[in-house]
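Pasting as-is:
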Amino acid sequence: MNNQQKPISEIMTRTLCQVGPTQTAIDVLARMRSKSVSSVLVVEDGAIRGIITERDIVRAVHNNGNLKTMGCVELMQSPVVSVGPATPCLEAYHQMAGRGIRHMAVTDEAGRVLGLASEGDLLRDFGIEYYMNFKSVNSVMRTDVCLLGETALVANAVELMIEKHQSCVVIVDALERPIGILTERDVVRLCGDHMHVELLALGQIMQAPVKTMKSGDLLHEAVKMMEETHIRRLVVTDDAGVVCGLLTHHEIVRGLESDYADYFKAFVDRQLRDLSRASPLINEKLILATILRSASGTAVLAADLDYRICYVTPAVTGLLGLNATHVVGRDLRETMKQSGWPDADAVLCEAALTDGAKTFDAMIGANKIALRVFLMRDERDRPCGFLLLAQRSVTK
């Protein structure tokens, strides 16, 4: 079966790590450590109340929370995003990416939990041959790596991890060569062993040596190494051995997002093929508008060649800080500049987009937003307008 269409139920984890709402944070730490899992579900009477991840533990340490006295309800995130068991894997991942999460519950129609799916489950399911489509590690790695020296404290590390939305800190020497690593899972482990974990020096507790790859190495070789050594991240170095990037499950699986465009187009095509059998009240514009509105986590704006906005989806309010009911008819360039994208004038012109879609990052308020801009063409292949897709850049 095509991986795009495979239901999430085929790759989800069915053996779940659960706690009840009355259990303590210490119970959660013990469960996560004993099972070597990155998340625990809080379940009551078969229904999900919340989820606790390694990042929630790191956040509690950062906020000086006393895990010895906290209950799991104080620690958990709620509500938990869930999908039905028949949801295609690629659609499930698109929802995860749009919400900036790494875990998703799978539930039946009554809301009872059936399983849990993670980015790691998706990565393992696609197999090594899929990642041969990418050329090298540097094609997907992240470059904004959290670096600290070995004399820094765990408190410094968790602060940096929370600030940068990252899952680890790389400990480096004076030349920024990797000598160790501290991960979210290490923080969970240390919280169970130490009263004041935040005061420990990184040199005392870091994992060493560090698994590394060169930036020019083939991505499928990196995936293979991670699979064989049962690790979730690799430090990437240049020819001098200096840290230049980080490769985690998250960066690798994000390659699926580019496949979503093909999946989305196929979905639209299937809908349009059924138009002749639909009610006359249902037309192509209505179906496309409904699909765009349901594209979770994505805001859509369309404008004509005079830059007058003629279509928006409601997601522009949350992602771009725009009033969806007031922007229609306004100038797309001015609207995007007011939202926080100063380069809108230079990018949003016919000449700049003649060779295809362009992708950019912009800070909109406190959020880093990924913007993808297309020059739309009519049935005669003549330019007729602009299409802008916006989605929160996922860095968790």
